[in-house]
Amino acid sequence: MASPLKFNSVSSYVLLLILTFFIPNKGKANKLELTPYIGSMFSSDLQSVDTENRLGVSDDLHFGLALAWQESKTGQGQILINYVGHQISKDQGEHDKFDLVYAHFSGVGHYGKSGYITTLGLGIGASYMKSSFDDGFYPSSTISIGTRYLISKELTFVTELRAYATLVKEEDNIFCHNNECLAVFEGAIWLDTSISIGFAYRF
């Protein structure tokens, strides 16, 4: 069975990214921006081990929090954490929990006039997956497109369409316990997409 990334490897990777983002900005008086998000997340399906059928994964409400800083007039650096709790539908109509936490470091470009801006983001980070059987960390990336409507100097209304791609192994044992498995991944990439709204507060 393939295993997810060890915690120490993820910790070192995250620390390296933090240093990459913050060391070049030492001494700059860049303002920070905090954005809570809420929206819907749509997920890939899983493959049943016992049959050739797919196991549906529910589309659910998700919550996110982003911390951003201004890198230039048209771009931001961003740390984004997002949580969603999915349900796996079993063949007998029963359900099983499948929780995900995404943590990514992104660059976000701003395009357009100051009152109405289109955004395009690209990031890299890790996904934490937890089922009723096991859990683990996996490398992942994210891409987003969105809009920003300026309400005041401090407050902005934000909309966003985002996709997550997580590198997994089809034979992973995250859905297994004592050599009995509920499901496996359908391929090497796990996909989630989300539609979100939020309010960005600059301070």
In a few lines, what is going on in this structure?
This protein is mainly beta and 203 residues long. It has one helix at residues 7-22, and strands at 32-43, 46-48, 54-55, 60-72, 75-89, 95-112, 116-131, 135-150, 155-167, 176-177, 180-181, 183-185, 189-202. The protein contains one helix and 13 strands, in the order αβββββββββββββ.
> Pairing-aware structural class of the strands and helices?
mainly beta
* H/I helix tally: 1
Ranges where pLDDT stays below 50 over 5 or more residues in a row are 13-29
Largest sheet: 8 strands, antiparallel, barrel
Q: Within the largest sheet, what's the order of strands?
A: 1-4-5-6-7-8-9-13
Q: What is the percent of helical residues? A: under 10%
- The CATH class, by name, is Mainly Beta
Taken as a percent bin, the fraction of beta residues is over 45%
Provide an overview of this structure.
The chain contains one helix and 13 strands; from the N terminus they run αβββββββββββββ. The protein is mostly beta strands. Helix content is 8%, strand content 64%. The protein has a single domain (7-21, 30-202), classed as Porin (Beta Barrel), CATH 2.40.160.20. The longest helix has 16 residues, at 7-22. The termini are far apart. It has one helix at 7-22; strands at residues 32-43, 46-48, 54-55, 60-72, 75-89, 95-112, 116-131, 135-150, 155-167, 176-177, 180-181, 183-185, 189-202. The strands form three sheets. Strands 1-4-5-6-7-8-9-13 form an eight-stranded antiparallel β-barrel. A three-stranded antiparallel β-sheet has the order 3-2-12, with no helix packed on it. Strands 10-11 form a two-stranded antiparallel sheet.
